[in-house]
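Deliverable D4.2, example record:
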Amino acid sequence: MLAEADIVNPNALNETIEFLTAMVTPALLISATGSLVLSTSTRLGRVVDRVRWLEERLSSLISVTDKATIPLYERRVEVVVDLLDKVTSRSRILQRALAALYYGLSLFILCSVTIAVAARYTQYRFVPIPVGVIGILFLLYSAVLMLRETRMATATVNAEMDFTWELARTVAPENVANKYRNRGRFGGMGMARLKDKHVSQIPDTPEDR
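Output generated by the structure prediction step:
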């Protein structure tokens, strides 16, 4: 016959399993948030490098003495300024998203601590719930910011590609420009442009050239 000390207490085992299960959930959220922090920090670093490059590009364009030798000089400056504005806004959004992720990460760590405290003092069993919910809300807020930043990044790339296509149509030989006339923005239905208010002066057909 087994001694009484060797008999496993089912209640104590269930409580231990319940405690470990409760501790695992914040750990998973901490791991996921850490991955988001890493990717957001990398994205922010690239955006900052892009801002610095655009500032150098704008300075070089402004310092040019003979502006007539540069095709679409005014459009170049307009595009760089517009891109600089978009990229600066992206960097600020990423900073807010990164701060929200750090807040969420701190709350998830605090949630793990409160779970350990609640296991010892049962009167505080309700504390981990609001702490974890607030952390999840911060995570949701950062996800919304990242979605907004992704859309701005897409708009920035599209604006830059539109200008590149417009520049190619300007400087390319006539036979090359006509060959690719039906490609570009809106399936070739309109000229590439940065803003809707901008009207391109480049003809679409050989007869108009």
